[in-house]
Amino acid sequence: MHPSTRGGPVAAPVISTAQVTYDTDRAHVFHSWSAQKSLRPMVIERSEGCRLWDGDGRSYLDFTSQLVFTNIGHQHPRVVAAIQEQAAKLCTIAPAHANDARAEAARLVAEVAPDGMDKVFFTNGGADANEHAVRMARLHTGRYKVLSAFRSYHGATAETINFSGDHRRWINDYGSAGAVHFHAPFLYRSEFHSETEQQECERALEHLDSLIRFEGPQAFAALLIETIPGTSGIMPPPPGYLAGVREICDRYGIVMICDEVMAGFGRTGAWLAVDHYDVTPDLITFAKGVNSGYVPLGGVIIGERIASTFDDRVYQGGLTYSGHPLACAAAVATIETMRDEGIVENAAAIGRDVLGPGLRALADKHPSVGDVRGLGVFWALDLVRDRETKEPLAPYGGTSPAIGETLAAAKDNGLLVFNQYHRLHIVPPCIITPDEVREGLAILDAALDVADSHT
Ligand code: PLP
């Protein structure tokens, strides 16, 4: 019980509701990815569009989309109403039944997928979507091992953390998932000493092919890859890379799974990031943007070849809340609204005309910015101590005062920015307006002066 809610003598100091929330949180909520004692979470009282308000009534422009999921912005009235209507009609129903919200959500998701990918298996989020995609691939091929990239993230469950390829795996890796990692292309910090995108692409494909040959191609069920890696650095692959991966998968009978949990549903200025690369994987996983996280939802879009494996054979897998009606109603309203309001087109135009050019202008001005990359509303600034050596402004897997002070400067001026180690990820909602982008860039400009002082 919070001290302020106990009975007793009257003259107790007045404690704000925000303070009560904060204290109760600190007493009882165990937060993810955090040392609990040093954590100072913001109290968020309300949100709308691209903005949030804290417990003191201060407003912030949200360049994080939270964990990169509020693609449609906060509190979109049409999505809120759809959830309310669904709740009044049918809050929940087991996955075995047919239900209008679930059926319509699956139809709309399949509609934005490449041709021939018509079936949708629903999950509660991204990690379980990847788990099920891999399970489908294993059952389809009768093989076990899974290829995935370094500099990737596929979720925090026991299997998906093993498939992930950054420091978050190290501490949780019990080596049990048959995961084999490869280097995907990333010219700015090339593992292949490449000088051009084309070289990087060719060398990365040669490396993948040789890795598979030496590991034993017959062992691999699946290759799991983020179409555009997100939390590991927002690294759009060079033209031809994903088509090359598709060819390699076909050559060795490996199921190609594209993880679009972060990149999907408008984030890159296309419905799905695969649309930029003209490639059709066997399976696509999604979550976050499908309904902007208003109610947890994820899933696997299944191509015909894999789907038909289970025509007469039981798919041994499922989740109690698979295709939850509230989540599906939110997805239907989100996708329809994104269509009606041209939100995907907005994300593309913002990236092309305002955010991309604005971030490049900041890079020209600030020595701490070593690289700018991205598209749509999906951008990263690589912050460095020295542009020549590319020494990161924080160590891999950690943070530094330089990064902490830069983020604090942005926050003090009303801008929330997400960092991963030495990088700032600039990932506002897809609905953001040019004026809001300019407002955020002006605050970022001042914050980068702080980063510059550490170069
Ligand atoms: N895959 C990718 C590419 C992600 O970015 C994430 C989360 O950020 C996940 C999977 C895991 O999703 P969830 O946290 O919903 O399990």
Automatic annotation (TrEMBL):
UniProt-listed PROSITE patterns? AA_TRANSFER_CLASS_3
One of the record's GO cellular component terms: cytosol
Transferase recorded as keyword:
yes
Q: Does the keyword Transferase apply?
A: yes
Could you tell me which Pfam families the record lists for this protein? Aminotran_3 (PF00202)
What domain of life is recorded for the organism?
Bacteria
Write down the SUPFAM superfamilies for this protein, in alphabetical order: PLP-dependent transferases
Keywords attached to this entry? Aminotransferase, Pyridoxal phosphate, Transferase
**GO molecular function annotation:** pyridoxal phosphate binding; transaminase activity
Under the heading InterPro entries, the entry gives:
Aminotrans_3, Aminotrans_3_PPA_site, PyrdxlP-dep_Trfase, PyrdxlP-dep_Trfase_major, PyrdxlP-dep_Trfase_small
Which family would the database say this protein is a member of? Belongs to the class-III pyridoxal-phosphate-dependent aminotransferase family.
PANTHER family in the record, alphabetically?
A: AMINOTRANSFERASE (PTHR43094), AMINOTRANSFERASE CLASS-III (PTHR43094:SF1)
> Which NCBIfam families does this one have?
PRK06062.1
- The name on file for this protein is Aminotransferase class III-fold pyridoxal phosphate-dependent enzyme
Q: Which organism is it from?
A: Gordonia mangrovi
